[in-house]
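Researcher: Please translate sequence to structure tokens.
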Amino acid sequence: MAVFVMLTTLTDEGRKTIKDKPERIKEVNKEIEAQGLKIIDQFALLGPYDFVNIVEAPSAEVVCRVAIALGARGTLQTMTMAAMSLDDFIASLKK
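Model: Translation complete:
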């Protein structure tokens, strides 16, 4: 499975939802996993992004579908980037 980094920014509505119901974060994680992604790790951030998620997915198409579905709710915006391990990166440079 491919690895992706998903940076998330909450909208005003998303911040209100999290403030009123913090456990909603874990509920969304279950929804994401039901759509084909595996959450490897997740952190809350200070700065221009609110969360970073490291996820595995069978393809970029699956990640795109999930990111669009999440964004369509109006509670968050995402920026998603493909990632690779340092060992894989170094090996690719030796080819």
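Researcher: Any highlights?
Model: The chain has a mean pLDDT of 95.
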